[in-house]
Amino acid sequence: MLTTNVQFLSAEIMDVLRLFGAEDRDFAHTFRRDGDNFINIIECGGECRTFSDIWRPRDELEFKRFAKRSAKLAFYLLLSQESGKSLPWGALTGIRPTKMAYGELAAGRDFAPLFKKFCVSGGNIDIVRRVLAAQGDIYRANCGNGEDIFVSLPFCPTKCEYCSFITAPVGAVEKYIESYINCLVEEIYSLKGIISRVNSVYVGGGTPFCLSAEQLSRVYGAINSLNIGGAEFTVEAGRPDTFTPEKLEVTFRAGVNRICVNPQTFSDKTLTAIGRKHTSEQTFRAYEMASQYPFDINIDLIAGLADENIIDFSRSLDAAITLSPSNITVHSLCLKAGSRLKESVSRLAVSDIDGMIALSREKLTASGYCPYYLYRQKYQAGAGENVGWSLPGRECVYNVDTMEEICSNIAVGAGAISKRVYGGGSRIERLASPKDIPTYLNKYKEIIEKRNELFA
Ligand code: SF4
């Protein structure tokens, strides 16, 4: 158990303990400040270690931020020295690396020295630098300007073993789908009065292609009534077994210019193990169908699925690269509460994941892809990250805007979270819709009113 004399440091320290699987051990922590000297004393197993470093906060807010950083760093150094293990993102937890980098650049400093202080690997400093370069044009154009629209279709054919998302297996909620679309369409119409310049629209899931072509058309029709102009329009179509020529045709005719084919792996054995009902052959067929249209296509892969080793992952990577989509997103497996796998796996092996991530960087770079957005999640295997890779000039605006939180996001549907972003991200107000479908159906009018107030 962890005890500390400064309660607001507790959650931050726990994040670091979790990285090393040390959350069940006993630590007594004391934090002291002596001028600019931040001192962390850690007692554990009869030993006492003191770590001190220099931070120069300008105000109370910055003091708290720096105190958290110094405590995390102290625990990271202790556990890293003790275990002989260093982690690729060092003591960086609970903050998006790119946001931290932008913070340093805004203060007129390079971000590398701060990252080095946090023991971030040279490879990760390099990838952040490449991400900032690749997303630079979108970032500059949209920081503090316009808004993005998210439309939630939280249905999937079945629930994947590792999924903690709110999505519902379509069979279990079939009776609600028509009502859901009616409410969703009403919500979309209600946005007319609050949008100004739409940067992008993202219809996400779940698996939006769970709906029929006719149901998708109704959702697209409502979106197009908003006069989104030439905004980027993405549909995260989803699992390959839901693709049909009719759905692709209505999607294209609605003006959608980006779609996602999300196999996660090209191994049939793994697909069965994670609870998917499709094969890699269906992925190739879905891709072939989608490539009849001039969509930018994204393929999602996950490193660390089931019992996959680096050879399995390498095969999936090669298969995706051979198809030559404009975007490939590589996720490190993340097991949050709510996923079935979380119940059976207490700790994630890290050895192969590091290799898989390194391999993805090497192969995608060699194939002409650039990393253009990056984020990390709690409980991610190997303390890794998710990276969106793009052929030059084919980056997804929505992903950059939402990951960097540089402009407002107006989100409709169950489980959607609207964010009003002020000053390019200096302040954010949020509004969450109910995740449960029946509750959403009862409350959507209330949500419309609250959203109108938030964006008034
Ligand atoms: S397809 Fe995606 S959203 Fe749907 S159950 Fe699987 S992981 Fe979850």
Structural write-up:
There is one protein chain. The protein has three domains: 1-82, Double Stranded RNA Binding Domain (2-Layer Sandwich), CATH 3.30.160; 86-132, no CATH class; 137-451, tm_1862 like domain (pyruvate-formate lyase- activating enzyme), CATH 3.80.30.20. The model is unreliable at 343-348 (pLDDT under 50). Helix content is 41%, strand content 22%. It is α/β, with parallel strands linked by helices and 456 residues long. The longest helix has 24 residues, at 60-83. Helix 1 runs parallel beside helix 2 (60-83) and helix 7 (170-189) packs parallel to helix 8. The protein is globular and about 65 Å long. The strands form four sheets. Strands 13-14-12-11-10-9-8-5-15 form a nine-stranded mixed beta sheet, sandwiched between helices. Strands 1-2-3-4 form a four-stranded mixed beta sheet, with helices on one face. Strands 6-7 form a two-stranded parallel ribbon. It has helices at 10-19, 60-83, 97-106, 112-117, 122-134, 136-142, 170-189, 213-224, 245-253, 268-273, 280-290, 310-323, 340-344, 351-366, 397-404, 437-454, and strands spanning 2-4, 27-34, 37-44, 47-54, 147-152, 155-156, 168-169, 198-204, 232-238, 258-264, 296-303, 327-332, 370-375, 386-390, 408-412, 417-422, 427-432. It is built from 16 helices and 17 strands. A hairpin with a 2-residue loop joins strand 3 (37-44) and strand 4 (47-54). The protein starts with a strand and ends with a helix. Bound molecules: iron/sulfur cluster. The site of iron/sulfur cluster has 11 residues, from loops.
